[in-house]
């Protein structure tokens, strides 16, 4: 029996891309150091994996919402699809193969009503903020870091919409050993 992957934000080794963004952003690291390049690629792949998980997760979220909340979930889904495509472009610009999404993900808890769907959306955004925090810190490429910082802020705002809670340091709450994390 194959286990369904948990909704996590770690890249899946050995997978291949299922498409790339039409416009390739400037994402060349400002260093010729292969370790820096590998670190940037790994952090970008992790962010892409996070976006893949959010695209899947918002499909679940939207199924349990109605009216304005469902419209908001659709908007968030579209934002995550766009960000996923942008990350594919960055990876291609770095001469890396963007990793494909898993066909399904195991949810961290049961989602069976509007309240649990909202909580799940908040959890998705918390986890995504953590990988974007890593991407901000990953290397010297200013455009990539700026995009990651913008995505981190967007995740924090979406989390606030779904949970009504604001984190003083988005992305750090998911860190082991962090206060409340």
TrEMBL record:
Domain DUF4439 positions: 43-174
Source taxon at top rank: Bacteria
UniProt-annotated stretches for the region Disordered: 1-34
Record protein name field: Ferritin-like domain-containing protein
Annotated source species: Phytoactinopolyspora alkaliphila
